[in-house]
Amino acid sequence: MFNRKIRNWLGITLVTLTYSACSVPTLVQKSENKIVPAHYTNAQDTTNAAQVPWKNFFADPFLTALIDTALQRNQELNITLQEIEIARNEVRIRKGEYLPSVGLRAGAGVDKVARFTNIGALEATTDIEPGKEMPEPLQDYLVGAYATWEVDVWHKLRNARKSAVNRYLASVEGKNFMVTNLISEIAEAYYELLALDTQLAIVRQNIDIQSNVLKIVRLQKEAARVTELPVRRFQAQVLHTQSLQYEIQQKITEAENRINFLVGRFPQPVQRNTQAFESIVPAVTQTGVPAQLLANRPDIRQAELNLAASKLDVQVARARFYPSLGITAGVGLQAFNPTYLFKPESILYSLAGDITAPLVNRNAIKAVYASANAQQIQAVYNYERTILNAYIEVVNQVAKISNLEKSYDLKSREVEALTQSIEISNNLFTSARADYMEVLMTQRDALESRFDLVETKMQQMQAVVNIYRALGGGWRQ
After folding, report:
1. Is Transmembrane one of the keywords (predicted)?
2. CB-based contacts of 327, cutoff 8 Å, min separation 6
């Protein structure tokens, strides 16, 4: 009767444990929205520039050489590669958690029982024949193997491993996104450097033109045809233009060193194309359809993998409410004398199983579960934001390329008109039919217009680079 009562009480206790463990709080999870617009500008062509490898997209051999060096030596990229290695090791850790753990054990010890203890007194009062008494002090030698294994009933450990795999793959996509941005940064800095070279050449040409005009004005001053005022104004203009070249040279130095930093080397001259910058024609890029961003953009793929990992984290946190089953086993040899260690009588083994379930400290488990759910919702919003940002980036660059093309055409005509006006104003001034201020303003306007034209060309080239990056190009080898 007494044993039956004990069995009934144990059964009620196990049912209570199971019920308390299986009651999981209900939390609302948000589903992600993967819907994107059907097209950018009513175009249905699926040809996408992002599919073109960067070595084929950039035709300048000096630029491709810089990019190739940066992909090998850029410190930030190499740091990211080590983060990928860390994520890969995390997968190995998670994999090892749901596999049985097996180890070897060997030990030796000695034990002397005190006389005035229950064990010591018991041994002293026991009538044992001489030669059969227990050795004192008692030695102990052990050689064996042991194994522990948590049976993954609720897939808690397997889901944790899958989550780690997704985060590892997300880190790989993060590296791809960094490669895309690195290529874009180098290309932008390279075209800026070419633009600065062109602006420096324009300044030096204007210095020669203005110096010649200054000589003419001085001759006119000696001939008493003009006063000292135009001489000083033209001289000031020449000095101002001469100062511009040093500002541009400083910008060139900074642009070169920005490239050197991205390439991972100390400051040194950057080899570049000497072709006239104005003659470079921006590459024609095909944007394809917005749905292709989901596969081409590494940051979208990274956000998607992080979202999948966060969903698995919720399942792992949910499984903590359920009972866990553990199995331990061991086998080996143990004796108090090394000579007996390898006899059959020294063999020992054990096998045990246990079930544990949360009972008291459930608030901590609930908090972990709630945090995992909140992080999953956060990952959904991050995924949707990444898609929205990618689409807007492409739309902005498409509009920018179109507007810059129109602006460059108008600025080219402006430069042509002002360049012709310089010669006209000089001739009129020489024949005393134009004021010296008209000559100065014409030269200044012509210089600014040529600077603006070069600036617009640089923006065109950088816009092509940016739309290539926005479409998700550059990370494919």
Report:
1. yes
2. 148, 149, 150, 151, 351, 352, 353
